[in-house]
Amino acid sequence: MRNLKAQRNKLQNKNHKVLISMKIAMVCPFFLPVVGGMENHVYQLSLELQKLGHEITVFTSKISHDGAQLAKSAQTINGIAVRRFKPLFRIGKFASFWPQVLKELNGFDIIHVHNLRHPHTEFGLWKGKTSKTPVVLTAHSPHHEGGRGKILEMIVKGYDAMQGIYPLPYFDKIIALHSQEKQWFLQKGVLDEKICIIPNGIDDEFFKAKKTGKEKDQIIFVGRIAKAKGLDLLLYTMKAIPGWMGKLAVVGPDGGEEKAMKNLAVDLGLGKRVLFFGKIPRRELISQLDASKAYVMPSKYEPFGISLLEAMSRGIACIAIESDGPRAIIQSGKTGILVENDAKLLAIEIEKVLKSEALRKKLGKNAMQEAKKYSWKGIAKKVEQEYLKLVQNK
Predict the structure, then answer these.
(1) What are phi and psi of 22, to 5 degrees?
(2) Is the domain of 230 the same as that of 350?
(3) Residues 388, 339 within the same domain
(4) Are residues 233 and 284 in the same domain?
(5) pTM of the predicted model, to two decimals?
(6) Which of 42, 102, 190, 306 has its CA 20 to 30 A from that of 208?
(7) Are 215 and 137 contained in the same domain?
(8) Same domain, residue pair 210 and 224
(9) Alpha carbons 341 and 320: distance in angstroms, whole number
(10) Cα 31 to Cα 70: distance, rounded to the nearest angstrom
(11) What is the rounded distance in angstroms from the CA atom of residue 322 to the CA atom of residue 301?
């Protein structure tokens, strides 16, 4: 019966190859208008799958990250149906309990759940198993080494030991963002054939927008102003670059540390050289990237690095503290530079890039070419192929 449902809206492309139009449920903790990396991932993937002829419904909570209630329980965003559920209670900052979704996950060809260690993840898996619907998991960097505080890290490890990773082998397919993440799943007992590597993507506008303005004596940081993002390291690094009097553009929302970082900039004598722009529209972000000599990602740990890819797509020399995400994206010395988490070492690499136009052009050209592999259009096609294998092999 489910295969008949999957076949009911067959499409035919220009080459007369039959494609199956699938009904796909995306289940995630938050969604637009809530802003974040995972939220954007689900939105962009859903848009591209929709263009391929599939019907997408997003199931999510009716709250924002800070717990504020959203107005609408149901709406359509650019053709994507969205159903939101009021949590019965929250577990920590991000996980919440909304079992009402179980009544709605009927009649789908694929259930795709996002994030691990959330109740909705197990709800989606349970529904898939009881209704014989294939369930796909994108965990969005579940190991997150070094990205949590000590107490939260202890809680996560305790949860994993008792329950958290128990469901992993039962998913029909797990999408890992890079090889390090795949290795983590293998260590947790998931079979190799159940794991595929498909990275995050970046919006086409970063590739299509025309180059704006002239290069300034400026470096740029893009991301939430939070402890894990390492802006403090970058400020100390600026102080350590001898003779350089250029500016730092800080682009991104306050993640709880903006006031402290502004005070630190003043204390270091950098007050007038550090420009805080907050969260800005995409076109303004592209203009700031185009005006910069280098993009710097000083995160203590970065599970992937969307803003890094966005900068690479604009042909900018990129420097990042070495961790799983940047390591998976950058070939150091060719498409960017990886450096240890140390202000003096970071200062040396930034100084090299600032002084050498030839190095900036080489890194930027290679980075732009590498970034083309991460368009959402291509990524959606890879995800679609994994869906089709599951539907057709039922």
Answers:
(1) -100, 150
(2) yes
(3) no
(4) yes
(5) 0.82
(6) 42
(7) no
(8) yes
(9) 9
(10) 10
(11) 8
- At 78, list the tokens: 């650019």
How would residue 155 be classed by pLDDT, with cut points 50, 70 and 90? Answer: low
- Alpha-carbon dihedral of residues 304, 306, 310, 312, nearest 10 degrees? 0
Band of the pLDDT at 215, cuts 50, 70, 90? confident
pLDDT at 294 over 60: yes
DSSP structure string for 316-346: -EEEEE-SHHHHHH--BTTTBEEE-S-HHHH
Query: Across residues 96-105, what is the average pLDDT?
Result: 95
320 lies in the same domain as 351: yes
Pairing, β 18-19 against β 11-12 = antiparallel
Determine the residue type at 66: D
Q: Are residues 89 and 233 in the same domain?
A: no
Let me know whether 10 and 45 are in one domain: yes
Q: Is 214 exposed, middle or buried (0-12, 13-18, 19+ CB in 10 A)?
A: exposed
The gap from C-alpha 289 to its chain's centroid, in whole angstroms, comes to: 19
Q: Which residue, chain included where needed, has tokens 């590498």?
A: 370
Cβ-contact 119, 126 below 8 angstroms: no
Say if residues 330 and 338 touch (Cβ distance below 8 Å). Answer: yes
Q: How far is 162 from 177, CA to CA, in rounded Å?
A: 25
Q: How many domains does the chain fold into? A: 2
Q: With cut-offs at 50, 70 and 90, classify the pLDDT of residue 14.
A: very low
Structure tokens at 85: 């559920």
pLDDT of residue 9: 46
Which CATH number does the domain housing residue 309 bear? Answer: 3.40.50.2000
Total residues found in the chain within this entry:
394
| 358-366, long-range: CB < 8 A, 24+ apart | 359/317, 360/293, 360/294, 360/317, 363/317, 363/318, 363/334, 363/335, 363/336, 363/337, 364/315, 364/316, 364/317, 365/315, 366/331, 366/334, 366/335
The whole domain housing 358 covers 205-373
The DSSP result for 377-393, as a single string, is HHHHHHHHHHHHHHHHT
Query: Each residue of 310-352: pLDDT tens digit?
Result: 999 999 999 999 998 899 999 999 999 999 999 999 999 999 9
Give the whole-angstrom CA distance, residue 233 versus residue 276: 16
